[in-house]
Amino acid sequence: MRAGGCAVVDGGFATQLEKHGASINDPLWSALCLIKSPDLIKKVHLEYLEAGADVIVTSSYQATLPGFQSRGLSMEEAESLLKTSVRIAVEARDKFWTSAKRRAGNNYNRALVAASIGSYGAYLADGSEYSGNYGPDVSLEKLKDFHRRRLQVLVEAGPDLLAFETIPNKLEAQACAELLDEEGVSIPSWICFSSVNGENAPSGESFEECLNVINKSSRVGAVGINCAPPHFVLSLIQRFKLHTDKAIVVYPNSGEIWDGIAKKWLPSQCFDDDKFEVFTTRWRDAGASLIGGCCRTSPCTVRAISKVLKKEKS
């Protein structure tokens, strides 16, 4: 990689879709565009590739089979939309790479496509991916059953990577890791947690506990943090390095806080693109191997991250 040993992950997807006029105030969130405006999804992927992303994440975070079926779609239609999320990203990557190769002195890598698998809480759309409180009726087997078919369909679609995102508790981390083993998935995967206090998983469980269940799986190649405030990230990388030998991936949000009940962003301690540029080097030096942005970050953020990492490498 031409990014100082780091891969650059893309940034906020829904944020960018909204900038282009998409209305996604919906339980399906950005996955709604798979139904209504797939061309916008490709446009956003291309913007992040142009900004220097080495990994683009599909628009399937909240694209679940029961979520689509609740909109009146058949199982076949729902599965087709999941596969479409991967196809659009692959087409965007291939289109961009064909043009990038023709540019003299380009500083791009051929990007990888990561299929996004959001947490059970993301499907519930009740903010529980930020609390980890799924209630007493949600067991390890229930979580495996929830993720199983979506995982199978996404794997069939042929992404380069699998990205389990905003996992809020040890139980779901264990379900994801064990499911990869049970299904014999050979595609490299990462599992990312959210964090609301910079110390523990949203459930209150320590990251040491959470990582212990993931460390048992050879199919999970990287672990990390996404959609947490950026000022938590440095100490969390240091903490993760104590408890795992796996690669570390971080893609925080801008620092604004999402109110999962009111469904709106609350103003908070925010990182602008210049701050992301400064902290990217610190995160890399602390041991992060993949760095990007999540909610409320943009192609400008990713360009800042890419610029500082690829400049140091060149």
UniProtKB/TrEMBL annotation:
Matches recorded under PROSITE patterns: HCY
Keyword Membrane: no
A GO molecular function held by the record: S-adenosylmethionine-homocysteine S-methyltransferase activity
Cofactor(s) required, per the database record: Zn(2+)
Source species taxonomy: Eukaryota, Viridiplantae, Streptophyta, Embryophyta, Tracheophyta
Residues given in the record as Zn(2+) binding sites: C227, C294, C295
Gene3D superfamilies, sorted: Homocysteine-binding-like domain (3.20.20.330)
Cofactor note: Binds 1 zinc ion per subunit.
All residue ranges annotated as the Hcy-binding domain in the record: 1-309
GO biological process: methionine biosynthetic process; methylation; S-methylmethionine cycle
Official protein name in the record: Hcy-binding domain-containing protein
Keywords: Metal-binding, Methyltransferase, Transferase, Zinc
Transferase in keyword set: yes
NCBIfam families, per the entry: PRK09485.1
Entry-linked Pfam families: S-methyl_trans
Domain of life from the UniProt record: Eukaryota
